[in-house]
Specification:
The protein has 293 residues and is of the alpha+beta class. Helix content is 53%, strand content 20%. Strands 1, 2, 3, 4, 5, 6, 7, 8, 9 and 10 form a 10-stranded mixed sheet that branches. Keywords: Membrane, Transmembrane, Transmembrane helix.
Amino acid sequence: MTTTKESTDGQAHAPSAAKTETLERLFSGEAKRRKRLTHERVLEESEGASLGSTIFLLSLILAFGIGVGAYALVGAVIPVALFSPDKTTENSLTGAVVNAPAKEETGVIVLGNASREEILAELRTVFNGTTNAGGGIRAVRFTAADGRGVENDATTGTLLNALNARAPQKDFLRSLDTAPAFGILKTGNLSGFLRLRTRSYPETFAGMLLWETEMAGDLLPSLRPDIKRSDIGLLNGRPFVDERVLGLNARVLNNPDGTPALAYAFLDEEILVIAGGREALWVLLAKFRAETE
């Protein structure tokens, strides 16, 4: 009986062991499947994130390219006017710079108690007596008596006041050196010019901008005596425009017909040049630049 019982117990335990082994295989397979699925999901998420980063980077590059293109397009559509003389004029102007004839005798004008009209009349006489060929410069010296009655070169402020110039009186005049240089340049037409040294570029430029509305009436009679006063009157209040002259930023005042009447530019942050015309300014900037090289 005992033998039979043991045999029966063994048969009773055998199915349990097999079932356990089967369950272990199932659990092991499920675990491997889940591990595989998890790995695949991680790869998919990683690839998705990488793809998202790539798309974002490409979007930034595209946006940057569009921005640069738009800037270039706007710059091409709305450029600052560039003064480039035609080849014949450029050769003439360049020749005037390189082959300028000898300077004429300096003209001297005593300011004293003379009125503006008397000073302009004397200046016209100097212009009429100027015979130098294209590109030559004739210096004009303005003198004023000091407190002891001794004649000295007039200061910038004294000269502008004698011409009744309505330039800003405070910061602008203080920003300028006291010794102005006035000359006459021949570039087809005789053109006067002022070369002023600045001690504060920002203040000088700001003062010039404020002066622009009155500058034609104040300076053109002395820089361009050939222009009628009635024509100068038409320029008062007209806006100056930005141009590039010899690679430098310049401000130009044009007549109603579009021809330039007055122009100025800074050769650098220390030298301001005001001329009775754009071509005259071109020649002067070329001359003064050559002197500093």
